[in-house]
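ingest -> validate -> predict -> emit
validate: passed (alphabet ok, no gaps, 365 aa)
predict: started
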Amino acid sequence: MAHYRKDCITLFLTTRCNLACQYCYLKDIQLPPQSININFAQIGIKDYFTSSNSRHIRFFGAGEPTLELEKIKEIYNYSLELAGDQLLTEIQTNGFFSKSTSKWISSHMNIIWVSYDGPPSINDKQRTTKNGKAISYIIQENISEIVSVFSNTTNLVGVRSTITPNNIYRQIEMIEYFASLGIKVLYSDPVFPPVSTNVPSPVYNLSQSFYLEYAKEFLRAKRRADKLGMFYGSIFTVNFDERTQLACRSCIPSPHLTTDGFVSCCDMSYGEHILPELIYGQYNKTTNTVFYDNKKITAIRLRRADNLKSCRDCEVLYNCAGGCFGEGLNETGYLLGVKHDYCDAIKFLASKLPRNDGLYPYLHS
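emit:
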């Protein structure tokens, strides 16, 4: 199943960020400056490698992970000692970093996802420094460097774009722009409300029709991408390649180690106060061990397609499995909650695209 192919351990490196994105999913949360405890990271990785066949580690952050590059290096070296040549490394970054950082991650990461929303006329409206400065020219340079390093390897540099009213009708333009940079893989995700709220985002007050319009424009852009030899994927279509009971790795659950010493199952769940239903472990500094709550794990694992009563008669249930776990919980307050605003868009795409027709070559986290 697709979610098992993406099973990995995620390390939240830091809460610090060098950007002020308009739609940040933690924009309503005031996180104190923190970075991950190295002992916690090492114990968590060792536990994961002991319990899973995967040797895939993923660097992420409530902030920008490359701001803690020295810790990334330390965690990388520790993981390499344990996993050897089986180690698979991945990072999700905003791409706003120095040439020396670009050189290091290009040499040590197998998969690099850059959060980037399109040509500068789009990206620099949505993603700027905290004092409002444009950053696209730096990201372009870094992408070009990484593409050059990866050109004769099996490593991947892909782009992950957030779709807002600013770029919903510019997806074909985005495809062509990213193709000009040498990008072969793009995933997009419609903007969603900040975590811990159940009301529309104060930045983008979206209706259900927005998601259907996104899907229609996505389909047009995907056809253009196919002609250019690019892979264009969406959070709506990520499980169209095979039937599944679980929407994503969160439902397994795969561990996400937070800067404040908790084990989450989702990028959206952070610490003991942000979607705490998805927290299932905690680090003990005194004993240098992690406690895993089996009752929480059992509850998380109940989020399976067969248990989603509101989706029982849906023709695309097993190519959706309820969609994003975090968004469903965030906006319904229920572990088996589903964001039904997405349903028409997902059904539309399912009627237009092949399903269960072979595994996708790329999966975005």
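The two ends are 15 Å apart (CA to CA).
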